[in-house]
Every structure is written in structure tokens, then in C-alpha cells.
Amino acid sequence: MAFALRKAMVTTEDQPLNQTDDTGAARSVEQLESRLTIHDFMKMQELFLSSELNENVGITREEFMEKMSVVVRQGTKEEYGDLFDKIDLARDGFIDWDKLTSFVLLELYEREERTKLSVIPQWKDLRLIPPIHKDTVENITFLKNLNVYLTVSRGGLLGIWGESLTLQRTLQITAEAVKPKDLWVTSLVALPNVNKVAVAFTSKEIYFAELNSKQGFSCQYRLQGLEGTVICMNYWYNPHDGNEAILTLGDVWGQVQAIAFNTALISLFERPSNSHEDENVTMTVNWQELVSGYHSCCYVLRHRLHDKEWVRQVAYSSSLDVFISVTTSSTNTLVLAWREKLSSDLTMTTFHVTQGVNAFDFHPKLNLIATAGINRRVCLWNPYVTSKSAGVLEGHSDSVIAVQFITERKLLCSFAKDKVLRIWDIQHQLCIQRIAGSFPKSLEFHSLLYFDEPRGRLFISFNNQLTLLEMEPDTGKSRVSSHRKAVTCILYNSVFKQVITSDMGSTVIFWLIDTGQKIKEFARCHGNAEISAMALDGCETRLFTGSTDGTVKIWDFNGHCHHQLNAGRDRAVEISQILILSRTILVLGWDRMITVFCLSSLTQSFVQPSDWKGGVQHQDDILCAAFLPPQTLVTGSSGGEIVVWNNSTENASMKLHLNPGKHLQSRSDSQQKGSSTDRLSSRRHTLSAACYSLSGTENCSAVTRLFFLEARKNMSITGGAQLVSCGAAGNVGFWNIQKGQLLGEFEAHGGVGPIIMTIDKSSQYLITGDLAGWVKIWNIENYCLSSGENMVTTEPPPLLRSFQPHDACVTYLETCTRNTCLFILSSSTDCRVVLSDISGLPLGTFGQEGHWRIGSDVPPFPRGETKDQTEEENDIKENSSVPSVEEETPPNLVEHAVPVTEDKEDLAYTVNIWDNTILGKKYKEKHTQKGRKYIIFNKAAGVKPTVVFRSLNIEALKETTEMKFEFLLHPDKYFGEKSVEKRSEDLKLPTLSATLKAPFNEKNLFPKEILDHEKKSRQLWEDMSNEGRIKNGRKPGKRKGK
């Protein structure tokens, strides 16, 4: 453990542990563990391993505070006490060296993860652009003035794409002197300042054309008579003076030529006096005319230092005032042609690279040139140092085709012939990302790379196929994400006290429930397939993951896959749920049937399924299931059927049909019909929305979740509800499976589509979540305890709290108990996993920088302090699409946890006067490290106060009778001059205690700091009043003396 700690911190020998560059580091720098260096930890190790301490027991909190403050000599005793509390999560009262190093390694691991997320680009899945070209794509560019992308193929087909990469139109570029079948387009470049494009052909011509919506490709100038075929071009213009521009050309004869324009906005070339001014007429310009200086609006610069080698790429750098060009030759590989002031001469600088290079890119801020070497190396060059490269990036196994800087991030992309894309950190000269395996498969291909940095789009072409890698949008440093993709499942492991989450990217992450720390991550568990279901075995030592690839994998907690279950029988099917029973494993989802695996058959790595004797009983796919020992199994489908099975005989014993709306009329039917298309456009996630068609009609009968009320074991005697279901219509149903009777049904979420739910093990709380990110907590302890005479209860149970922990669809809900206290885990498509207490107050988001600490004195939610919905709240629901606000008595304030809230938007409309005072802010800063008390909401989090006033009915004011006030009739009586003898100190205001209706104890109402401050202020005021009385008494005496 000590060796791992030293290895992890070897690069930060004299640096603080959590020193980062982001703004959130200010808080971390104040913490003790952030200021400790490797030398401080070595001192701590010597103390732990010394003979003075008992190695079997460790060190207590008092000893840790006393000895570490003396040995390390950094930090106070209080800070070491706080550090001890962070390490001693189990509250054992002592820690050892292993616990300390584990804590430090977790801190370092999270630091590395945060650094990766801030530095390494996050890409969306590779996208294939619909092919329109039959020949090889020669160029890709973006035309700013039209906000379109241009692609041109070797055959002359020009594609114009919108900013959203939708094809707008295609144009066929042709030359007059050459037949289309003999014509090749070699290069295309955009001229943004003059709204034109330049196209080079194998006919040694360059066409300057304007893209006109009516005429298409309208050629204005034809430059002919070039000595060699131009195969690469580059265009630059002065952003401050559009008349100044340079077009750089590279040809097959090793020539680098540049046309410098002086009046580009007026005219690129001078028209003869006898020519027509009609722009539709193409003007022919001979190259020799430009070389001889015939055109005064432009002149030519050129050199032939590449000695008849094909010039692969050219560019002009305005910051260096130099022309850059490369070839595949080992001599004069990279040439810099420096412009001389007031002269047309060029000063040459040459670089020699073994085997030559294919391409290059220049970073103006870092002043570096990167070359894509045929020798599989990417070299970094200082333009002023020719003897040696500034850096060599090695890692590619084949010739490098192209390089491209990501300027703002100071990164470099390189793409090789083996179809491997690498992202390099320029400062450390390390490869931080490798992307391979997803590109089109082809043996021989011509490829080019174009990076549109403002939009974060990387285009890579493979012959005529164009691919796109798009960066994930930067959500900002204040935005916290638990996963990179939408979260699908949550599990709680009560043995290891860990939370396990999965996402659509086939990633599984393990978190500590007590602090929210990320401890391990399993990537690509099922390749690129989504993980749609997870489960734990009875001992909670094995993890089962089910994926859309039709397989179920069994993992240990070290990331080793022991078995793979062929649930889909070699088909890619979607698995909705996994049930681990005493002898069998049940896998559900597709084909309306149950797949069985016997635990006794888990002797091989690849396991085949067994047949379910009960056959097919559902009419649609199975979405959910629940099991009640010893043998009761229920399954729910997208068609609304609930089938009750005997797990021992595998036969169906009963069918229940969910018919939402039969017993209660939804108040939002019109809203559901009107917005069904929007809701159904979202993906299934784990919300079981796959059962809805996208045609505009919604299947409201789908059963999305089933749960047994485990605490109600004797309900068969009283006839109460044992099973709870929820579905697509937002309703919740309570069933008695012995009688096959629906006892209660109520609308939990109206007008938002399908919902999901979970129930705690004590069967006291029902938690529901919807597509809008809202979560509701219901008290169902006394709900449907007995059955009526064929009557279905439509009255909802008491609603305890409604809050919005997420901004998007809630995909999974789970409950967990820590220190006899109940907590709620919720996940969403917003890539976040949030931990909340049972009162609906969030403790934090897994993955945030600051950690919470779950204490041992968290109070349960008060049962009696609830309030049913009133008629006014129902009116708000009917007249507004915004969720209602539940008013209720808040639970008692007990300092039980230290939540770190990353998203302050949830508190935007909660006013706390004490926090806005100067004394309150000082008090808060002073006690930040000791703990924070919750701010209890009187309204649902995230609902603006203005929402409540929408339900007010504003009427016209009634006429009032004329009123006569005495102070208007006799103003002298009330507004006369005050008596001189009346002194301000004689006016005594009533005390605070006299104004209260009931006596109270000030010490219990205000903090001690406020009472001390008030006492000092009162004493100071009395002293000043006494001095004032003395001075007022002396002044009249002095006047008499005078």
C-alpha cells in the first residue's frame, strides 16, 4: 500500500495533494490533506510504524491529533481531527496506516478522474455521413459567410451541407477545356472575405467561383498556364483589412507559389479595359501575367527548394510571416520561406526528416509545428531551431497521415494509416487518448482530416465515405456528472456499503455511500451495448449485468467476469430485469417469455438457458417482475397484463389486467394526448417506454414496475394489498393477489407520461419518479390494509414530499438504509446519480468534488407531520403544467450530515434572511468545516414563487364609500410641533419579550454568537447614553458662567 502511495504521488513530490487548476480548488486548498506533501506522509508513516503504537489497534483520534500536529508540523489539531473523521468512515474510533493510505489513494484517484474529464475530450459515437460522392473526397472546409460545409470529390461533385450536416444541394464542377471524364479536382479552398471558392484541376487551372443560389457554381476567374498541377492550396486574409490576402499553392514540381492580393475586396485580378463588367462572364488570367507583374492588384512569391518533389501541404502563417511546406522527401522535408520586408525575396530555412512527412499543422500560440511522419513519428519543431526537434511523439504503429492541433486545449490529434486516432498532451508529450476499432474497414484508402474547432467536429474521410467525431458539449465546471452517458440502473450493496451504477455506454461504477467517493470503474462490460439491467446475488458478492446484446454476465468485485449467460440465444435482445432466486436465475424482457438458468449449471464460462415450463402467457414483451418467497412470482408486460406464477411448478395461476382510467378520470388526459409525441421521442432507458409506439398514440396500459410489500406477510387474512404496480399513465395500483382484486388506484404524476417507483423494505414509503425529473414520496403504511366490497379506493395516500433532483427523465430509484436511516438513490438521463434523505433533501451528487459524510443521528421522516393535497393545489394542477407545490410541516432540524450541493439552482427561490446578514455569513464561514444544517423547503425545490400566484383570480376593485379621517380634518392635533422638553431618551420602546404572545428562552432561539454580540451592543449603547447625559448636564452650566 505504501509503495502504491509513493508511486501515485511521485509526480507531485512537493505539491499539495489536490491542487488543481479549476475554480473549485479554492475550497480544497483550505483542507489539510490538500496541503500535505509526500514528505509529510513519510513522516506520518514512520509514526504509524513506530514501536510506540499498537499495530493491531492503530491510533485513536486524540493521539492522532496530538502526535501528528507535532511530527508533521503543518495544520492545527482541529484539522487533524477533521481528517481523522474522514478516514474513520466505520466510526471504529481508531485508524491505521492502511486506512490512511486508502483514503489518500481514493483522493488521488478522484483527482485523476477530474483531470481526465477536464483535459481529455469526450466524443460522441462515431457518425457516418450519408455518402454522396462516388470518388475520393479531396477536401472538406467550412464557409463562414453561408454557415455551410463544403465537400468536393475527385470527380468534381461539390456537396453543400448545412450546419446540422443535412445535405442542401450538390453541384457538378466542370472545366471548359477538359472533358468531365478526364478531369480531376485536386484541391478546394474557401475565400471567406470575398465569398468565393478556389478549385484546382489536373488541367493546371484554378477556378475562382462564387456559390450562387440561383446559378450554382458561377466561375468569375480562370487562372491558367500554371507550370505544374496544383495539388494543395491554402488561403489567408487579414481580418482587419479584407483587401490583404494570400493564396498559397503547392504543385507536383516541388514549387511553392503564393499570390499576394492588395485589393481583394474590390477585385482579385484586373480586368482589361475592353472586357465586360458582367460578373457572369468568366475572365481568363494567364499565370505569366501574374509573374511579370502585369496585374498591379497582386504579385507572386515563389521558391523551388523541394527539388521536383510533390508538395503535400502548404500554409501561410501571419504570426511568423512565413510560408510553410512539406514533402515526402528525406531532404528539405520541411521548408520555411520567410518574407522580407519591402522586398519580394524569401529567406529559406530547411528541416530534414527521415522518410519525409505527409502533413503538418502550426500552433501560433505555442509557436510549434507538428509533422506527420512516414516513419510513424509525430515531431514537434521550433521554427527557429533546425538542428533538433522540440519533441517526438511515438506510439503509432504505421505511417501517420495527418495531424491537427486543438488550439484552445493545447492538444494534438494524429491519425495513422492503421486507422488509429491518438490525442496528445503537448505540454507533457504524452498520449492521453486512443480511438480505434470504430472506423470503416477498408484495406486501401485515401484519407484526410479536418477539425472544426469552434463546433468541436472532427471529420475523417475514407475514400468517398465521410465520418464525424463530435465532442460532447462542455457543460461547465459547475455541472456535475456521475457518468459520461445516461445512467440506467442503481444497486446498493449493504455488505460493502457501496452504490453500483451503470450507463448506456456499458460502464459500471462503484461508489462509497458514506462519502460519495468513486472507488472503481468497469469499462466496456458488454462492449458498446447498453447495460439495461443489474442484480446482486443473495450474498451480495456477485454482480449480474444484462445488456441489449442479449447476454448476462456474472462479475466479482475485482472486475473479473466468471460466467456469460446466453439469454438471447445468440440474438441481440433487450433484457429488462434479472431475478436471482435460491436455485435459478430468471431473465426477462423479449419474446413474451421467461428465460431460466439453473445455478447448478454454472460450471462453464458460457452457459446456455433452460426452458420455462409455463410457456408464453403475455401478449407483449415483459417489462418487469417481482418475487415473494417462497414461490410467488409476478410479471408485468407492455400490454398491461400482470401474470401470477408458481415458481416451483413454473405454471401461471392468475392473470390481472391493468386498465388505467377505469376507476379514476385523469385530470390531464388532454395534456397526455397533446404531448405524447414529445415524450415518446425519448429513448426507453429503464423506464420501459419501448412499449409505446411512435405513431402518436400512447399505450397507457404498460406496467413499468412491480413490487411486493414485504412487510405485509399476513395480508391474506385481512384481504389487504400485497402487490404494487405502476404504469405508463402515471398511475399506481395496489393489488391483492389471493383474490386477484385491485384495491386502490391513484394518479401519482399527472400529465407527464410513464413513471417508475420503488418501495423501502419496511413497506412504509413509496417513491415515484417521472420523465420531468420529479420524485414524490408517499406514506403507504396504512394504505389499502383491507379490501372493500368490490370498491376500488381512488383516494391517494398521504404525499410527504415532492422535489426535483434531476433535470431530465428519472431512470431508476433505489432505497438504502444507513445507521437506521433511510436514503433515496435516483438516476437520470442527465448522467447524474443523486443521494437524498427520506425528507427529499439532497445530500449531493455522486462524482462531485466535495464529499458528504453520513452521520449516525439522521432522523427518520416524521410520520404525523403530513398534509394532504387541498382543493387549491388541485386547481393549480388543472390550470398549470407546472407541478404542484406541497405545503407541509418540515421535519425537525438536526445536524446529521454535511451535504455539498453543487447545483445552486435548487436553492434559487429559497430565501434565508440569516444567511444574507453579515454576521450570518461570518458564522457560516466559521462553521463550514464543522457541518452544515439543512435548509428546509416549504415549497418543492425548483418551483418559482411566481408559479403559486398563477392560480389567483384577479377581479375588478369594488367601489368604496367616501371615508373621512380625523387626522385629515384636524392636522394640527396630530402634526403640531413637538414639545422641547420631550427627550428621546424618555421614550422607551417595549421590550422584545413584551411583544411576544408566549414566553421563550432566547438561548434556544439564537446562536451564542448573536446573544454575545447583542449583549456587547446593549452595554455599549448604555455607556454612550450615560456619557451623553453627562455632557448635556454640563453645557448649561458653562453658559451661565459666561
UniProtKB/TrEMBL annotation:
Keyword Repeat annotated: yes
Basic residues bias (residue ranges): 1031-1042
Statement: the UniProt record of this protein carries the keyword Ribosomal protein: no
Residue ranges with Polar residues bias: 667-679
Assigned keywords, A-Z: Repeat, WD repeat
Molecular functions per Gene Ontology: calcium ion binding
Record protein name field: WD repeat-containing protein 49
Species of the source: Eublepharis macularius (Leopard gecko)
